[in-house]
Design brief:
This protein is of the alpha+beta class and 293 residues long. The chain is built from 8 helices and 11 strands. The chain has one domain.
Length: 293
């Protein structure tokens, strides 16, 4: 049972909101070539996040939320007993971007380019195995919450809603149904925890899409440039171009990079009607950060 499918309507005020606007994905020249050729993005499984502490931080906030009063006591027990399996068996995949296209730490961490991804609704690529059942609760970009108090309030509110629903069902629902509901509630809380990051990373100005899928079929796998193996999904916008613009980082400010990026952007412009997307959105720009050897 996938938590965000079991609890489809618990999106009250305070949960990370959907957002539109610029979504800049930092990437290497090698990865940009792959993106240009395939016209899809890769959403990585949560066990493959660049910083493993992200998941640990989110789970610690879930643990705190479940320790509060006025909650279903069994939820904490289910969380504690399933914690080791959550990361491995919960099929959450993350696509990340930033509001800011010119952050030196991001260029240093992820590559020489930033691409402006679509702010439309996203979906699993059509070439993905058809037996996968897409159950995403977050088809659009959502703001990452860095403020700890706000993050705690998000999870506490979600836990209270799940508890109230479980208590209402206790009088008539079979034991097995209640057990499944509690497991799904924990997964639901983990889903929202993936939109929370430590305040120390607030300068990243991150937004992200978290895809929640059935675990019946194995994901795709790839080898990264560093040699690691990563489970992932192919994702793309439901309509319109994958990306609109390329921003060249301080080490990519050359004629070769500019010509190559312009070709990738021009391909997207020619695929798009000017009635759907303003031609001015398609551009190649250079970083204002000075390059240092």
């Amino acid at each position: 049972m996938v938590g965000t499918t079991y609890w489809p309507n618990l999106q009250s005020g305070g949960l990370p909101s959907e957002t539109t606007g610029e979504a800049w994905h930092y990437t290497s020249a090698h990865s940009l070539t792959r993106i240009d050729e395939s016209d899809v993005m890769h959403a990585s499984h949560i066990v493959s996040l660049n910083d493993p502490s992200e998941l640990e931080y989110g789970l610690s906030l879930v643990r705190e939320a479940l320790a509060g009063d006025n909650l279903d006591g069994e939820l904490r027990r289910v969380f504690d007993s399933h914690q080791e399996e959550i990361a491995r068996k919960t099929a959450f995949y993350v696509l990340s971007a930033s509001r800011n296209r010119d952050l030196l730490p991001q260029f240093r961490s992820y590559g020489t380019h930033a691409i402006s991804l679509s702010d439309d609704c996203w979906m699993i690529d059509a070439d993905f195995p058809s037996q996968f059942d897409e159950r995403t609760l977050s088809p659009k970009w959502r703001e990452v919450i860095y403020n700890r108090e706000s993050a705690q309030a998000v999870l506490r509110r979600a836990a209270e809603e799940c508890s109230a629903t479980i208590w209402t069902a206790e009088a008539h629902a079979p034991h097995e149904v209640l057990r499944q509901a509690r497991v799904a509630a924990v997964e639901y809380l983990v889903f929202w925890a993936l939109h929370l990051k430590h305040p120390a990373y607030a300068s990243e100005q991150e937004i992200r899409i978290v895809f929640d899928l059935s675990t019946d079929t194995p994901p795709l796998i790839k080898a990264t440039e560093s040699g690691s193996m990563v489970p992932y999904l192919k994702v793309r916008p439901q309509s319109g171009p994958l990306f609109y613009a390329v921003h060249l980082g301080p080490t990519a400010n050359s004629a070769s990079h500019s010509i190559s990026a312009s070709a990738a952007v021009e391909r997207r412009r020619r695929q798009t009607s000017p009635l759907d997307v303003l031609p001015s959105r398609f551009s190649v720009t250079n970083s204002e950060i000075p390059f240092r050897q």
